[in-house]
Write a structure and sequence with these properties.
The chain has helices spanning 4-12, 17-29, 51-64, 85-93, 101-107, 111-118, 126-135, 140-146, 149-157, 184-195, 214-232, 277-280, 303-332, 336-348, 363-374, 419-426, 511-514; strands spanning 35-39, 41-42, 45-47, 70-75, 173-175, 182-183, 202-208, 235-241, 249-250, 268-269, 287-291, 352-353, 378-385, 393-398, 404-409, 430-431, 435-439, 460-466, 469-475, 488-493. By secondary structure, the chain is an alpha/beta fold. Among the domains are: 37-78 and 273-451 and 488-514, no CATH class; 90-167, no CATH class.
Length: 515
């Protein structure tokens, strides 16, 4: 199947022939739909904390964090292309013959472009845009008054201006402050120093970035680090990594044969955010917060986020302490009463129903199962009320052994042709905002190998195109989906105010981003 040139390409990606052949097999066999039993709801898989519980868990975290190594992990490598999708369409197609700006935007359903231009002064990046015009001896206000929005759009997107069309979201100015605008990555730093303070008052942030932008992220951190350290009396450590080429996946044609370019070379594509489990696996910390780069707010609105980050982390630490205590008891020899207590804890608190055959097992088999289960990595995931956002949600999922546990599930993992499964999905009440707190050490304090807990059958196959030809692309199990489906998982409801993603540039005009 593979030529010598292919073998060189495969090796250059850090892949093996066996791994590539396995990927091709996935294209042929597909991935099985998950057996969702029911959606997780308040009281049935999702914890809703009252004020007293929030206060309790915040205190648990604050009392413990001073002796812990804490890391905030921020996936930040994605380009902002989709954020500016409508603007790209605008500069590509306007002006159309005989159509003015308003007529064109209406005809092409580009009302977002019209709204952006009408409120361009309210964007955090407007001062930077104005400075670009001034540096060229021009005045942006003249372009606004004359309705020359094409030039403004080009200055936002292209290298002749801000170059936002080719930058990742982390390097785009999100919020205005009296001194200057803050970029998304700066807001992640400013947020992190409020709750991710660990031993020796160290704050550790890790960004996954693309290689071509790492220097820009490093320069941004250097520019704000002295002020943050002085104001917050902390030591700020920022580290960076790229998605490994070895996590790329081969593309195939519609007959599941390796897709080849005109020169005969193979096509490899990034494996999606699930590939970042490899990056996460390099982080050695007691507590790891995970949050998407674009889910940030100005300082004036950060309080709910900080409070619930600490509360969710406190719950995680309480769960971990109990799990580790049970794990040590298992090593010492456990009495029947203690085993009954452990089984109840696993099912009721850790939200994991035991395998169908569990009751038929011997005492030793039960102990071995519990030892393995309690050695898994743990996570508590914040969930917000579903208000129509696309994406995954919290569900109870049945495994092959009959056990049922909580998982974050994407719609693509569900057989929507099954009316019962579709009904379960449609009845879900909550949404995954990517708000995770993780514990990745075992009861001996040793780092757990996270790659051992990936469900490799939870990948995705999507249809793409290259040079006008259709191809199939393979995405690895998502970072908070299949890559973590074997983790001990608990869901907690968090306020909708903590979820303010920026999917399009117009989202920056919402009140949550105006401060």
């Amino acid at each position: 199947m593979f030529t010598n040139q292919d073998l060189e390409q495969i090796s250059a990606h850090g892949l093996s022939v066996e791994k590539v052949e396995k990927q091709i097999e996935y294209f042929k066999s597909g991935f099985p739909a998950l057996d969702i039993v029911q959606s997780a709801t308040i009281g049935k898989g999702i914890v809703r904390m009252d004020d007293a519980q929030v206060e309790k868990y915040v205190k648990i975290y604050q009392d413990a964090c001073h002796s812990k190594k804490i890391v905030k992990f921020v996936p930040a490598s994605g380009a902002a292309t989709r954020m500016f999708k409508d603007l790209f369409v605008f500069i590509e197609k306007f002006p159309a013959a005989g159509q003015g700006f308003e007529e064109f935007t209406a005809a092409n359903k580009l009302g977002s472009v019209k709204s952006l231009m009408e409120k361009i002064h309210d964007t955090a990046f407007f001062p930077e845009l104005k400075a670009i015009y001034e540096a060229a001896g021009d005045d942006i206000e003249k372009h606004i008054e004359s309705g020359d929005y094409l030039d403004i759009a080009r200055k936002i997107l292209l290298e002749e201006g801000l170059g936002y069309g080719s930058l990742p979201k982390g390097l785009i100015s999100f919020h205005s402050y009296p001194q200057k605008a803050r970029k998304a990555a700066e807001e992640q730093l400013a947020e992190g120093v409020q709750y991710a303070i660990g031993a020796h008052r160290e704050v550790n942030l890790h960004f996954t970035v693309s290689a071509e932008h790492e220097a820009l992220f490093e320069a941004l951190v250097r520019s704000v680090k002295p002020t943050l350290e002085k104001d917050e009396h902390i030591t700020l450590n920022a580290s960076f990594s790229q998605q490994a080429k070895s996590t790329d996946t081969i593309a195939v044609d519609m007959e599941n044969k390796p897709f080849r370019k005109d020169d005969g070379s193979l096509v490899f594509r990034p494996g999606g955010h699930g590939a970042l489990i490899e990056n996460l696996n390099t982080i050695d910390a007691d507590v790891i917060f995970i949050k998407n780069i674009d889910n940030v707010v100005p300082d004036s609105l950060k309080k709910p986020t900080i409070t619930y980050k600490e509360a969710v982390a406190g719950l995680l630490l309480e769960m971990q302490e109990a799990a580790h205590r049970y794990r040590r008891i298992l090593d010492m020899g456990i009495e029947k009463e203690a085993m009954d207590s452990l089984e109840k804890y696993v099912e009721e608190t850790l939200c994991h129903s035991l395998p169908t055959a569990y009751s038929q097992w011997s005492d030793d088999e039960k102990k071995d199962y519990m030892k393995a289960f309690l050695s898994r990595p743990m996570r508590v995931c914040g969930m917000v009320k579903n208000e129509g956002e696309p994406g995954g949600g919290p569900f109870w999922v049945r495994e092959a052994d009959g056990s049922v546990s909580l998982q974050v599930v994407e719609s693509a993992q569900i057989d929507m042709n099954d009316p019962d499964k579709k009904a379960i999905f449609d009845a879900s009440t909550h949404f995954n905002p990517v708000d995770l707190v993780c514990a990745v050490k075992d009861y001996k304090g040793e780092k757990i190998d996270l790659t051992e807990y990936i469900d490799h059958m939870a990948g995705f196959i999507s249809k793409k195109s290259l040079s006008g030809r259709d191809l199939k692309a393979l995405e690895l199990p998502g970072l908070w989906n299949g890559a973590m489906s074997r983790w001990i998982t608990v869901f907690v409801e968090v306020p909708i105010e903590t979820f303010n993603p920026v999917k399009t540039v117009n989202d920056l005009l919402r009140p949550a981003h105006q401060g």
